[in-house]
Structures are given as structure tokens and as C-alpha cells.
Amino acid sequence: MDILLIGSGGREHALAWKLAKSKRVNKIYVAPGNGGTAKEKKCTNINITDIEELIKFAKGNNIDLTIVGPEEPLIKGIVNRFKEEELRIFGPAKDGAELEGSKSFSKDFMKKYGVKTAEYEVFYEENKVKEYLKTCKYPVVIKADGLAAGKGVVICESLEEGLETIDLFMVSDIFKGAGKKVVIEEFLKGVEASILSITDGHTIIPFLSAKDHKQIFDDNKGPNTGGMGVVCPNPYVTEEVLEDFRVNIMDKTLIGIREEGFDFKGIIFFGIMITEDGAKLLEYNVRMGDPETQSVLSLMETDLLELIEASIDERLNEMEVKWKDEVCLNVVMASRGYPATSETGYEINILDDVKDDVFIAGAKIDEDKLITSGGRVLSVIGRGKTIEEARENVYKNIEKVNFEGAYFRKDIGKAK
Ligand code: AMP
Ligand code: GLY
């Protein structure tokens, strides 16, 4: 099969690497890809991002299957457009993608189907939300309704901070429309977990749980980032938590997807908080996580292409996913200045014996050299029988990768 894979992050490098292992995959075009996919087996980057251009490419090059990495094209309706053209594609259509595209839509969905989540209210008017904030217990969580490049959630410690956040979101309109509507949510205390899963709209199969480390500094200090490293499986997701998640979150979500009649053949990612009162859903994403994917796919033994095809053909009930009985860590190396800004343009050196343990995110190929081009530059992988062994291996591997101004957390797999 010839595959078109859309996206350019570390997630897409991991997807390309995993798909390339499938005997049935002949060629993978990555649009637009990065310096990692440029060098991956069976892969070629193509510099296209526009949906109509991608359709032309898929038709002109007899693409058998398109796989969408990031949320943005899904929310724009890329799956609907491809299907109108009778092209085979993996991902949810526009209606289901709204579970990530709009926080109020997803909260209303959770409420309607009894999915366990934080209490919330939705507001469209600045005056009303400001009045409401005067009655809240703090901290309180304020969320911009639409996509805000990962910056649309603020945990406010006081009324003053809440009012300032509303001014930024609704009055200054810093997210160009995405913050004109807001969700005010109860603050949940606990440990977070990412549970990625695959669904065909009838069956849902959870993958191994993962734990992201969102803050930039050790001990979960400093500003939030896209994710600085992942341990998989998540050590806090016990059998008991998993059962609670299945009953109170996952199964109810599946009922909702069916009842709403979403055309959902894709990935659904549950961001949960494990609280004293059990597992509660923070959010849905309708794509794989980054950097969760780099760890999760490193442990997946099942052929990913087989799973994706079973989802599209509504045969997931016949599938079982096999995993390596190991722990996988990935530690993100970021460029100096991240997440506020980041320096770019430095050459990356990777020793040969760890080449297979590196997933590239923000780097490009320039005259056959790998050059940094983004904030999160790459992830280094380490596996082991225990977390301790995986930690030892990942930090040994990271010594063999370097570029000017490289920064990484030292406590991935250790921090709560
Ligand atoms: P979201 O995009 O909704 O996952 O929010 C991004 C991050 O904000 C989450 O990963 C949590 O760390 C935090 N967060 C979101 N909602 C809450 C909440 N209700 N209570 C505490 N933290 C939250
Ligand atoms: N790592 C979190 C996310 O992909 O949303």
C-alpha cells in the first residue's frame, strides 16, 4: 500500500516509523514531514498542507490510505472532503472532531452521556462570567472554547487572576475568536494520565496508558509546554483505575458516539485526572498525543496498519492489540528559550548506536545535516523491564545526542 501521512511533529515521525515496519506498506508520503521522516525507511516528504492539494496528490499518486496526525485538519473536515472524493482516510469526520474542537461541545457531550468529569458552566458574555467568577471557589479553571495552540487553559488562583484571564480571552480576544466563549470548570486535584485508544464507532480499544510531563522544569515547575517526556505505561494507572476509567468514562463515551451517529473511525485520546473521587475526564483529543505516541508505539507489537484498516472497515471487535511487556520512556530535548521562544539553526549530532532510539520533531534536513527548527526538537527513547531500568537507558542514550542549547528534564518517570 502507498500511504499519505499528514503532519510534521515527533508524533508523525513515530507513526511513520511504526507504519514502515508493516510488510504491506510500500511507500509513505509525509505531508509536510520533518527531518526525521525525511530519512525514515520507505518515507518521502512532500511539501503540501492545503486540503484540496492533498486530495489532488492522493488521486494523482494512487494513494491507498491517508492517515491524519494533527487535530487541525480533522476539525476543518478533511475526512469529510476525502470521503466525498471516495478516498480512503483514517480519522473522525467533522462532527466527532468537535469533541476536541470545542470545549463546551465536549463538556455538554460528557454531561449528556454521564461521562465522569469536572463541574462546569459555559459563558458567552463578559459581564455574566465576571459576576459568576465572584461566586466561585478558587482555584478555578478557565478554558477558551476553541483551539488555542495549547494556551487556552488557565488555572486561576484568585478572582483577580480570573478577571484578568477573561479580559485577555474575551476583550483583548488573544485567540482570535477561540476565547469569545469560555468554559469555567471546577479545579481537580490528582495525577494525570493519557489514555489513547482506537475506535470504529462500535468498538473501542484502549492502548497502554501514558504519563506526560507538561511543565518545562523538574518537579513539575514552570510554564506548561506541549509535553517534555512520557512514561508508558503510566505507573499511577492501576487495574482499579483502569476499570473505573472503562466504566465511567470510556464505555459512556462510546455510547455517546453511537447515539450521536458520529462517523468516528479514528483515535480518541482521553486526558484524565485520577482524583480521590476516582478517574475524571479532563478532555478528549481526536488524535494521538505528542509525545505520548513516541512511547506508546515503541511498545506496540501489533501491526498499526492492520489496526487502522480494521477501524475503517468496522472490524475492531475482531482485533486484539499486543504489547511488549516493558516500560518505555521518552525524554524531549528542547531548544534554549522554549516554551516562550526558541533558538533554531543548530546542527544535531546523534551517535550511530542510538539513531533508532530518536524521534525527530522540530528539525529539518539542510545539505544532508539535521538542523534544529523548532522548540521541541526531538525525543530520545529508553526501554527496560522496570521504570528504573528504562530511566537509566534513556538518560544513557541522551548523552549520545547533542546540539547547542539543548535542554531536557532529568526527572521523567520520577515526577508525580
Ligand atoms: P485540557 O486542554 O483541558 O487538557 O487542559 C490542559 C491542562 O490543564 C490539563 O492537562 C491539566 O493539566 C490542566 N487542567 C485542565 N482542566 C483541569 C481541571 N478541571 N482541573 C485541574 N487541572 C486542569
Ligand atoms: N501531550 C499532550 C497532547 O498531545 O495533547
UniProtKB/TrEMBL annotation:
It catalyses: 5-phospho-beta-D-ribosylamine + glycine + ATP = N(1)-(5-phospho-beta-D-ribosyl)glycinamide + ADP + phosphate + H(+). Keywords: ATP-binding, Ligase, Nucleotide-binding, Purine biosynthesis. Its EC number is 6.3.4.13. PANTHER family: PHOSPHORIBOSYLAMINE--GLYCINE LIGASE (PTHR43472), PHOSPHORIBOSYLAMINE--GLYCINE LIGASE, CHLOROPLASTIC (PTHR43472:SF1). Coiled coil: none annotated. This is Phosphoribosylamine--glycine ligase. Belongs to the GARS family. One of its GO terms (molecular function) is phosphoribosylamine-glycine ligase activity.
